[in-house]
Amino acid sequence: MAIEVRIPTILRTYTDGRKAVEGSGETLAELFTDLESRHTGIRERLVDGDQLRRFVNVYLNDEDVRFLDGISTKLADGDSITILPAVAGGAGRRAGGMA
């Protein structure tokens, strides 16, 4: 079973700079375990205990896994996983130097 995993820039140090890697597993948890076997340290950045880390968004074929079964979400051959770190923003300076 081949599943494409798209890796955000911040995690590419674990994948030797690769934007996408392949993995396998029947669930998202199994996929992350499989990725860890080849890309040591990546799982710890994605999972805390048995849950996704709070500031990591994971999409299965463009659908947020938090609205599916989270880390227990079932996977199928040919699926695509996208990992995106949550981005927080704040009020920036407006023109004229006023915040």
Spell out the blueprint of helices and strands.
Blueprint: E1 3-6, E2 20-23, H1 28-38, H2 42-46, E3 47-48, E4 51-52, E5 56-60, E6 63-64, E7 80-85
Parallel strand pairs: 1-7
Antiparallel strand pairs: 1-2, 3-4, 5-6, 5-7
Largest sheet: 5 strands, mixed
Q: Looking at this structure, what is the CATH superfamily?
A: Beta-grasp domain
Task: Kindly report the CATH topology.
Answer: Ubiquitin-like (UB roll)
Could you tell me the mean pLDDT? 89
Record field, number of beta strands: 7
Rg over CA atoms, rounded to whole Å, is 16 Å
The global form is: globular
Helicity, as a percent range = 10-25%
CATH class: Alpha Beta
Low-confidence stretches: none
Discrete helix count: 2
Structural domains: how many: 1
Spatially, the strands of the biggest sheet line up as 2-1-7-5-6
Q: Beta-strand percentage? A: 25-35%
Distance between the termini: 51 Å
Instruction: Name the CATH architecture.
Output: Roll
Structural class: alpha+beta
The helix/strand series, from N terminus to C terminus, equals EEHHEEEEE
Structural overview:
There is one protein chain. This protein has one domain (3-85): Ubiquitin-like (UB roll) (Roll), CATH 3.10.20.30. By secondary structure, the protein is α+β, with helices and mostly antiparallel strands. Helices cover 16% and strands 25% of the residues. The N and C termini lie far apart (51 Å). The longest helix has 11 residues, at 28-38. This is MoaD/ThiS family protein. InterPro entries: Beta-grasp_dom_sf, Mopterin_synth/thiamin_S_b, Sulfur_Carrier/Prot_Modifier, ThiS/MoaD-like. It comes from Streptomyces kasugaensis.
